[in-house]
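Dear Dr. H.,

I hope your travels went smoothly. While you were away I took the liberty of generating a structure for the chain from your last submission, since the lab meeting agenda had it listed for discussion. I wanted you to have the full record in hand beforehand rather than looking at slides cold. The sequence, exactly as received, is reproduced here:
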Amino acid sequence: MQNALLTVRYFWRVAARLGNYPELGRRAAAAIPNATLVESPELGHSPQVEAPEQFDEALLRE
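The corresponding predicted structure, in token form, is as follows:
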């Protein structure tokens, strides 16, 4: 139990330091002219590997 508690504390410290990625993505898209943000909260770090069809569709969408 002690290791799990330390892991959770470490995770939250790292997350607090790195930032809120969904919010950062929205802010980045708002700052880039003509940008389109495609959010896929169900996917992780490698959406092109986890869901290639969904990734390709989003990438090729006009």
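Two observations you may find useful: The chain has a mean pLDDT of 82. DSSP finds four helices and no strands in the chain.

With kind regards,
E. W.
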